[in-house]
Design goal:
This protein has 141 residues and is an all-alpha fold. Helix content is 89%, strand content 0%. The radius of gyration is 58 Å and the shape is rod-shaped.
């Protein structure tokens, strides 16, 4: 083959090879751009999900704080109620003791009154049956 034809054939094959390489490069570039766009989209989705999760965590922490405050408040109220109950119980126990003393005193007073009545009744009965003065007891003499 003449040199010009060889150059033309070589030039055609070289040009064809360059076109193929350019087409492959464009195809790769297009694929890379597509991959980059997908990664950016995935990144944006991930950022949105992270933001949603952070919001959920913040809400949970707020709820936890509310529950802790409510628990502390309930514990304080329970302690106050317990203290009030103990105070009331002590007061009632003192009142029971005082009432027992009053009851014992009333019983003793009733027994004393009953004894006094019996003594008075015996004394009245005894005056009906008085012994003559010459019959006195040994202790009277």
């Amino acid at each position: 083959l003449p040199a010009t034809h060889r150059r033309a054939t070589m030039g055609d094959s070289f040009a064809a090879r360059l076109r193929r390489m350019a087409a492959e490069a464009e195809s790769r570039e297009s694929k890379f751009k597509s991959d980059i766009a997908k990664v950016r989209s995935d990144l944006q989705t991930a950022r949105g999900r992270i933001s949603d999760l952070q919001s959920a965590v913040d809400e949970e922490e707020d709820e936890k704080e509310r529950l802790v405050k409510a628990l502390k408040s309930a514990q304080a109220e329970a302690k106050t109620a317990k203290d009030e109950h103990a105070t009331r119980e002590k007061a009632l126990m003192r009142e029971v003791v005082a009432l027992r003393f009053e009851l014992a005193a009333a019983r003793a007073s009733a027994q004393d009154a009953s004894r006094a009545e019996r003594s008075a009744a015996l004394a009245r009965e005894g005056s009906l049956f008085e012994l003559p003065s010459n019959l006195t007891t040994a202790g009277d003499a």
